[in-house]
């Protein structure tokens, strides 16, 4: 009997989430747009809810923050006792309340309107007090709880959790949040441990991001290649495709400060660093970082087993605290 009831609870919560799929409409897109605008400016997503929905709000705030949308969680009672000072006009409030009539939530609405922050509501109905006050309302509909008393928040909080995830992850995707961005915010745990053992091949620049030119190019052509790639250096190759030298933005600065005549037409072979330090793709990123710090350089050519250039690795791409070297 206990097992059967547990299965009913899970099925009820799953159905609550499934019911949201058909309810998604233009309001969801409008909510995404508000958060995207917030990301572009100086605003934050401020998430609040009372009781169990407040716990869901804390999780939503954490998900937003970890996927690139700056966010804080705000307790509604603390808010009306001074913490509303954390809310700015550029912020977007995400308010979670199943009924939309919770007194602590309703008490926030007037002050929030005065501040000028936009409001996204996750609630049962657009006709609730919260639904009417919000700039955008994501109506979840009437959801029966899985509790045998139909009282303890269960299906409604699960639905709010899932809808919040859909909102946060859709905004993150539309904003172009990348795997590298995500990893930058997660230096700890199993992900951080994996990151510490990244190889050069995991972080090196390739293709257009790693400019290379023939060794007979001019300084002007090399400068143009570096600028197009927004890189820190250009690798110079001999006729066989092997690395003959490297020219960095630091080398350029030194030549400019020295008032080098006819700089743009000067052959790069006369001013490049010949026989530069190189590294293979299977070396640890930490090893590459150590080499660059020791030699006081910012970029290394990456070569394959036959000595052919396959990319470059830049010191800025290797956060030092997150990498360790093999013993």
Question: Could you explain the architecture of this structure?
Answer:
The chain is built from 13 helices and eleven strands. With 327 residues, it is an alpha/beta fold. It has two domains: 2-177, Glucose-6-phosphate isomerase like protein, domain 1 (Rossmann fold), CATH 3.40.50.10490; 197-322, CBS-domain, CATH 3.10.580. The strands form three sheets. The protein has a five-stranded parallel β-sheet with strand order 2-1-3-4-5, sandwiched between helices. Strands 6-7-8-9 form a four-stranded mixed β-sheet. Helix 6 links the parallel strand 4 and strand 5. Residues 321-327 have low confidence and may be disordered.
Throw out a few tags for this protein.
327 residues; Rossmann fold; CBS-domain; 4-stranded mixed β-sheet; 11 strands; disordered C terminus
Task: Lay out the secondary structure.
Elements: H1 2-21, H2 26-40, E1 45-49, H3 52-66, E2 71-73, H4 76-79, E3 92-97, H5 103-115, E4 118-123, H6 129-133, E5 136-139, H7 155-174, H8 179-184, H9 189-196, H10 200-203, E6 212-214, H11 219-229, E7 233-237, E8 243-248, H12 249-257, E9 273-274, H13 285-295, E10 299-303, E11 309-314
Parallel strand pairs: 1-2, 1-3, 3-4, 4-5, 6-7
Antiparallel strand pairs: 7-8, 8-9, 10-11
Helix pairs in contact: 1-7, 2-7, 3-7
How would you briefly describe this protein structure?
The protein has 13 helices and 11 strands. With 327 residues, the chain is of the alpha/beta class. It has a 5-stranded parallel sheet, with helices on both faces. It has a 4-stranded mixed sheet with strand order 6-7-8-9. The chain has a two-stranded antiparallel sheet with strand order 10-11.
